[in-house]
Amino acid sequence: MSMVQGLVLGAFMKFFKIKLPMSIFYVVLVLARHPPIVETFKNTDYDIVSHVWHCIHYQKMKPASEKQHIQLAPLF
After folding, report:
1. Non-local CB neighbours of 37 within 8 Å, separated by 6+ positions
2. How many angstroms separate the CA atoms of 11 and 16, rounded?
3. Smallest Cα–Cα separation from 76: which of 23, 21, 1?
4. What are the b/e assignments for 39-50, b being 16+ CB within 10 Å?
5. What is the number of alpha carbons within 13 Å of residue 44 lying toward its C-beta?
6. How confident is the model at residue 74 (pLDDT cuts 50, 70, 90)?
7. pLDDT single digits (tens) 22-66
8. Could you give phi then psi for residue 75, rounded to 5 degrees?
9. Of the candidates 27, 25, 24, the residue with the CA atom closest to the CA atom of residue 58
10. Disulfide-capable partner of 47 in 21, 23, 24, 53 (CB 3.0 to 4.6 Å)?
11. pLDDT of residue 51
């Protein structure tokens, strides 16, 4: 597990232990690089919300390209 994964999971587990309600927004490209975080999130009752493939400006993107990114988004 990387240092980043450890920090994210450590913070997340503190919230999980006190049953703090939350929604988890994610950028697919980032979580795709950190499978342990994805597995941890999948084992919760939290709202998991995709924030697309990666942080780009979709306003000027061609619809076909945007559709490809949307299809990549569901990790859960």
Report:
1. 5, 8, 9, 12, 31
2. 9
3. 23
4. ebbeeeeeebeb
5. 20
6. low
7. 888 777 777 788 888 888 888 888 888 876 777 777 788 899 988
8. -95, -15
9. 27
10. 23
11. 67
